[in-house]
Structures are given as C-alpha cells and as structure tokens.
C-alpha cells in the first residue's frame, strides 16, 4: 500500500462508491474501504488532528506517477 493523506475537503470520489465495502478494525475510528470484488483497499476515511481526512492508496490511482514520488517509509510493525 502506498498512502497519501488528503483533507476531506480536497477529496472527491467520482465513481465506484457502491463497489466498496466498509470495515472497522480495532477502535472503529477509521473507516477502511475495500473493493467488493478483489479486496484491495483503495482508501480509508478518518480524522487527523481533529480534521476529517482521507488516506488514499496511490496504487489504486491509475493516473498517479509512482516513480515521481518521494517516499516516506513507515514501519508499522515496530511502532
Ligand atoms: Zn477491485
């Protein structure tokens, strides 16, 4: 997964809303959205610093130029 975080006001889902299903892990504070067909997770909705935010999996954005990105690696296992 290759995530970018976008303020909710700057995110618009053009289509495909009905192709996803929402799952709530752990504390139920992030709405993880999965594709009903293949199980990929294209995005999630939550809050960061009290503001609504979307986490977008850029691997699910065909127009994204992944080679042009500067990556910040995150080791979630050691947190
Ligand atoms: Zn899919």
Write the layout of secondary structure elements.
Layout: E1 3-7, E2 20-23, E3 31-35, E4 43-48, E5 51-57
Antiparallel strand pairs: 1-5, 2-3, 3-4, 4-5
The chain binds zinc ion (ZN).
Describe this structure in words.
β2 and β3 (31-35) form a beta hairpin. The two termini are 17 Å apart. The mean pLDDT is 93. The protein is 0% helix and 34% strand. The protein has strands at residues 3-7, 20-23, 31-35, 43-48, 51-57. The chain has no helices and five strands. It has one domain. Strands 1-5-4-3-2 form a five-stranded antiparallel beta sheet, with no helix packed on it. It is an all-beta fold and 79 residues long. The structure holds zinc ion.
Provide a count of the helices.
Answer: 0
What is the makeup of the main sheet? 5 strands, antiparallel
Mean pLDDT: 93
In terms of DSSP E residues, the strand content is: 25-35%
Shape: globular
Structural class: mainly beta
Strand arrangement, major sheet: 1-5-4-3-2
**What percent of the residues sit in helical stretches (DSSP H or I)?**
under 10%
The oligomeric state of the chains shown is single chain
Number of DSSP-assigned strands? 5
Encode the helix/strand succession as letters. EEEEE
The first-to-last residue Cα distance is 17 Å
Molecules bound to protein: zinc ion
How many distinct domains? Answer: 1
Low-confidence stretches: none
């Amino acid at each position: 997964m290759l995530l970018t975080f976008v303020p909710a006001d700057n995110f618009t889902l053009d289509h495909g809303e009905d192709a996803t299903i929402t799952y709530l892990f752990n504390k139920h504070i992030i709405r993880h959205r999965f594709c009903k067909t293949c199980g990929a997770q294209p995005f999630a909705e939550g809050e960061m610093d009290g503001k609504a935010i979307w986490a977008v999996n850029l691997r699910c954005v065909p127009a994204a130029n992944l080679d042009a990105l500067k990556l910040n690696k995150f080791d979630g296992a050691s947190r």
